[in-house]
Design brief:
OB fold (Dihydrolipoamide Acetyltransferase, E2P), 6-stranded mixed beta sheet, 5-stranded mixed β-barrel, about 20% strand
């Protein structure tokens, strides 16, 4: 396989030449686990680590390689290499790191499309879909909603579920599939383009790994049954895996995510909840929070049924999360700046005492 089979293009080659990286091997990160990476190159798969300088100069986890990244490498032998540099990313899917305030976890990079997978028979949650949409919209990744396990429900139930999605989410394709009967697979395959990168987002047990296995025609990822006691999926995929399908599409399977914290101040929320933002222009006050203000066009729309109350509540919750995350980041930067000043003054004092 050639680099182009994994999505390598003219822009990446231009960056390689302009940054004098022609003497390095180029590859794409296909798995990552505790700062050890599997990288696909034209010479085969290599296990790689980052340079000490990259670790030392990294300002955050976002500066480390992630699945989907293009990197330059120094190859030492047939099995090991050192990652020298990460190429520019054209998209980054990320969320708040669980249990780490003010930190970001990269889900995957250089993604063109995201399959937002939910099981139609259980654990269906439009609020979570809106969260995935916000992550995609912030990153410029095109979302596709996939309802799996349709063989476990009847047609009227499926139609009701699709109608409930359309009532709150517009302009996003909705596909329904069965990993058992393969119903809907023809439509999924028709959407996959050669050289484009796709990822799958969803909770554990919704059928992402089965979808990957079926699309590839191989057992690439282990699958497990749903827990009979909790009716929740077991975490089978523990790291991200990138594979090239027979039709030339590039697909990434991600671990199940129940917590999807909003981590970006971009336009993701504005795109996901476009109706709310459109109506907010008619609010009496420019700084309207859409909570209890007089003359709020958004609250009026909720009251008259123009905006779904559940969608409005979900928007408010994510808006609060985003504000809290941004405040945490600002506080963290303030502390780092103050610490920098202390260290600078400390070094000045040492030099002064040495004179």
């Amino acid at each position: 396989m050639k680099l182009a089979d994994f999505g390598y293009n003219e822009d990446l080659e231009k960056f390689r030449i302009e940054n004098n990286l022609s003497s390095f091997e180029v590859g794409r990160v296909i798995t990552e686990h505790k700062e050890r990476y599997m990288v696909w190159t034209e010479k085969g798969e290599l296990e790689a680590e980052i340079t000490g300088n990259m670790r030392f100069t990294a300002k955050s986890r976002e500066d480390f390689p992630a699945v989907g990244d293009w990197v330059s490498l120094i190859v030492y032998d047939a099995e090991s290499a050192i990652i020298h540099q990460v190429f520019p990313r054209y998209s980054i899917l990320k969320r708040q790191a669980i249990g780490q305030f003010g930190e970001v976890q990269i889900i995957a990079t250089n993604i063109d499309f995201a399959f937002l997978v939910q099981a139609a028979d259980r654990d269906f949650n439009i609020n979570r879909l809106e969260r995935y949409l916000t992550i995609c919209n912030t990153s410029g990744v095109k979302p596709v909603i996939v309802l799996s396990k349709t063989d476990l429900i009847d047609k009227p139930t499926l139609n009701t579920t699709i109608a409930s999605i359309k009532a709150r989410i517009s302009n996003v394709p909705i596909l329904s599939i069965s990993n058992e009967t393969r119903d809907g697979y023809e439509t999924v395959n028709s959407l996959i383009e050669k050289g484009k990168t796709y990822c799958m987002l969803g909770s554990s047990g919704v059928g992402k790994s089965s979808l990957l296995n079926n699309l590839s025609g191989k057992t690439l990822m282990r699958t497990d049954a749903i827990s009979q006691s909790t009716h929740k999926g077991r975490h089978v995929t523990t790291n991200r895996e990138l594979v090239v399908l027979d039709n030339g599409g590039i697909l990434i399977d991600n671990p199940g995510m129940r917590e999807v914290g909003i981590a970006d101040s971009g336009s993701g929320l504005e795109i996901t909840f476009d109706l709310i933002f459109q109506l907010s222009r008619d609010c009496k006050f420019k700084d309207c929070t859409h909570t209890n203000e007089v003359g709020c066009a958004v609250l009026e729309a909720v009251e008259n049924g123009e905006i779904d109350p559940a969608s409005y509540e979900n928007y408010q919750k994510m808006e609060r999360e985003k504000a809290h995350f941004e405040a945490t980041i600002a506080e963290k930067r303030k502390r780092e700046k103050e610490f920098g000043k202390i260290m600078k003054n400390y070094k000045k004092d040492i030099r002064r005492n040495e004179l």
